[in-house]
């Protein structure tokens, strides 16, 4: 437990430079996922068997440690990762990107532009595959 706390603190401190790019995700056993931009987090604590996220706007979010299946930092937005909107990131999202590439001409604002570079291409597919491999 102490290792987890120390690791969390070290990660929060070392990622401060890139805070705008990272989101802390807490995933419960119920597959419920919450995420907060690192720039919005004031502090992360472990109190009375809970993971407590204190936000800069003064609110707190508390999750029982017993139901947390994983915590991770990601530069990917949960809404962008799930391209087809079915609640999971999988090969179906890749197929949606391929379908978009064949049928659409303008990717502006499209969920298929996973990496946000303004075009829907194989780089978006690779970003999805990388996410699947690492999560």
What descriptive keywords fit this protein?
three-stranded antiparallel sheet, 27% strand, 135 residues, Type 1 dockerin domain, SH3 type barrels, 32% helix
Question: What is the topology?
Answer:
Layout: H1 2-14, E1 23-28, E2 33-37, E3 41-47, E4 50-55, E5 60-64, E6 68-74, H2 78-81, H3 91-103, H4 122-134
Antiparallel strand pairs: 1-2, 1-6, 3-4, 4-5
Helix pairs in contact: 3-4
Give an overview in words.
The structure is a single chain. With 135 residues, this protein is an alpha+beta fold. The chain has two domains: 2-74, Roll (SH3 type barrels), CATH 2.30.30.100; 78-134, Orthogonal Bundle (Type 1 dockerin domain). It has helices at residues 2-14, 78-81, 91-103, 122-134, and strands at 23-28, 33-37, 41-47, 50-55, 60-64, 68-74. A hairpin with a 4-residue loop joins β1 and β2 (33-37). α3 (91-103) packs antiparallel against α4 (122-134). The longest helix is centred in the first third of the chain and has 13 residues, at 2-14. It is elongated. The mean pLDDT is 74.
Quick rundown:
The protein has two domains: 2-74, SH3 type barrels; 78-134, Orthogonal Bundle (Type 1 dockerin domain), CATH 1.10.1330.10. It contains four helices and six strands.
């Amino acid at each position: 437990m102490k290792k987890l706390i120390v690791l969390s603190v070290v990660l929060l401190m070392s990622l401060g430079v890139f805070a705008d790019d990272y989101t802390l995700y807490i995933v419960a056993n119920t597959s419920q996922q919450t995420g907060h931009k690192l720039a919005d987090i004031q502090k992360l604590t472990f109190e009375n068997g809970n993971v407590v996220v204190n936000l800069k706007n003064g609110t707190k979010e508390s999750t029982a440690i017993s139901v947390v299946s994983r915590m991770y930092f990601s530069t990917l937005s949960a809404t962008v990762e799930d391209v087809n909107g079915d609640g999971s990131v999988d090969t179906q999202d890749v197929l949606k990107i391929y379908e978009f590439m064949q049928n659409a001409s303008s990717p502006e604002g499209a969920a298929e532009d996973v990496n946000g570079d303004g075009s829907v291409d194989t780089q978006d597919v690779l970003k999805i595959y990388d996410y699947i491999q690492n999560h």
